[in-house]
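Researcher: For the record, we're logging two predictions in this thread. I'll number them. Prediction 1 follows.
Model: Prediction 1, sequence and structure:
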Amino acid sequence: MRRSLMLMLLAPVAAGGQAAFDRSKVPVLPAAPPLVLPTVTAARLANGIALQVVPQREVPLVQVTLAVAGGSRLDGAEIGMASFVARMLTESAGGKDVNALQNELAFLGATLNASATWDGFYVSLNVPKRSLGAALDLMADVVQRPAFTAADVRRQQSLRAASILQRRDQPNAVATLAFNSLLFPAGHPYHNPPDGDSASTARLDSAPVRRFYERTFVPSRARFIIAGDITAAEAGPLLATRFGGWKAPAVAPLPVPAVALQPVTNSAVTLFLVDKPGAAQSVLSIGGPGVPRSSADYAALVVMNTLLGESFSSRLNSNLRETKGYTYGISSRFGWQPVPGAFRISSGVRTDVTDSSLVEIFRELRRIQDAPVDATELARGKAYVALAIPGDFETIGQIVSELVTLDTFGLPLSSVSQFITRVNAVTAADVQRVAKKYLPADRATVVVVGDLAKVRAGIEALKLGTITVLDAAGLAR
């Protein structure tokens, strides 16, 4: 078969003496067809919980996600509590221990997961349509009737404590934690690690875990997003039966704190070094304060960052990976969150080129600020962004994820089409303007985790800025 296929492919060349196309020319791509977004039906349960349903009849599957606003922003002094509560939801619930719960889910062909981010709690169910009712019963148990038994809490507490100890030997984790703690001051919701630290983990107990759950998992902050082989007329009664009686407890919900503190803005480049003797590579985190998702420059920033470090063919990756061979990969990203996150460049580079990597990274930051991108590069970056968006709506899980993200920022589904229009309108002048305005080329926070005996002298010789040595956990000595 393979030989026959080869002969078929070569036949035009043999018959006509030349191929039917000119390999020396890049094929011309046709214009992208207009994006057709799914239809969303909105409704509410009797107790006020919002509901969005997207019918997708291609396969008999349903994705149900419950999003509850809050997340780790509500931790306060109990750092790591939100993520621990989310982890505990799928342990014992509704009179079933974790083994019974997982056995029933497996029998139904369903998966049920719970998680927390800095900004919210999420419980997600993926299930065949025929098992939806029984799976929703289990989801209702997890959301409304978690047990938080002392035995379950102790087990998960021990696992978390071990994980926190292990991450001290993980340079990427140390770099991330150090970068966030340096950029976001104490009291800012993004200052602490979402899973807490050893001290906060040691204080975990079933009583405070339950109190936190009761003050954060409240229906007034909840919304359902559903996609798959289902209509709003079908979904409403199914959810009303299981969640219509969900009421907030008598205790008042934890208020979502106002963020008065802003990220640290340096007046010059500052460097922080963490020693990992014998490390084969250095882990770099370089960045500064991010930008609100509501910024009028959002589309231009996305295109600019795509060219700088978001795509595989970006300037940073092409330089440090393809040309220099310093790294397997390097990327840059903006943290788009309700409270502005960070802009951060991340990479692991060979120890012997740590200083050279810093030189090239700052060179690329300044290059995109100092000169406009050419038309070909700009067109490629805009196409990369705009043409990737339909892929974000391929599966029911992706559809739900996109709707969750849009709701987090208070954006309608129509904003996706508007974003594509704005991306296509970005100019080279826009890219240069936002690069100059937002990239921290002259005021970056730099974290280097590596073998300081081998890399410190080279870094000092660059004279990028003041240097502070942190301990193994990424804290100031």
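Researcher: Logged. Prediction 2.
Model: Prediction 2, sequence and structure:
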Amino acid sequence: MTVPVVEANGARIPAVGLGTWDLRGATCTRMVEAALQLGYRHIDTAEMYGNEREVGEGLRASGINRDDAFITTKVWQDHLAAGPFERATKDCLTRLRLDAVDLLLIHWPNPRVPLAETIGVLCRMKQAGLARHIGVSNFTVPLIDEAVALATEPLVCNQIEWHPFLDQSKVVAAACRHGLAITAYSPIARGRAVGNRVLQEIGLRHGKTAGQVSLRYLVQQGAIVIPRTSKRERLAENIAIFDFALDAGEMAEIRKLASPAGRVVDWSGSPTWD
């Protein structure tokens, strides 16, 4: 299966990837291997996930050429000062057993560290060849604008929570202004989409599941989606979203599902959301 790519400031990012949050040990390795053998070419991990070693093992076990895979990792919020950021990046690569990642992200902003310092070292990681592309995650509109102004290398992505129950139009518009792609994590709202009546009914019209409708809703707006699963059968389901399209009425129906209480990922380290 060939997955379309999203182009952004020089990067070509596969529109569907495997999210690996909460995947551990042999399960993580097996899922990465199976996903790549099935046709996935984008794997998302992070320092904080504690599974970069297993992601690397899955990549090697899959037998695909390294250059055919797009590997994203993220540096944690506590390591955003220049020295810790550089050490964390090198540690990520050591665990993955890679010379470079395809995309290196700031996982969450940290107001205790000047953004100029973090963006500066992020850019240096690209210049040093440790990352082919760089970007941010969980950045609000003001933070996106500030990061782009500070960066001496192109930022290609803002990774955010996005699904039918959360209106992210302001952040998406800000990213578009700067040519950044949007990667949607928790694109099925950690399973909430699966039981939603509206999504189920739309899925029946197309012979698809509610989860597939949720993913299609996002990619049809230009997003990259990285659903996480620990079930092999879900891998095939989550990538089979390019053989149907939602019409304008269906998109409008889904858009009405968003609410101020729709966010599923929020914690004390979150920024003030738009």
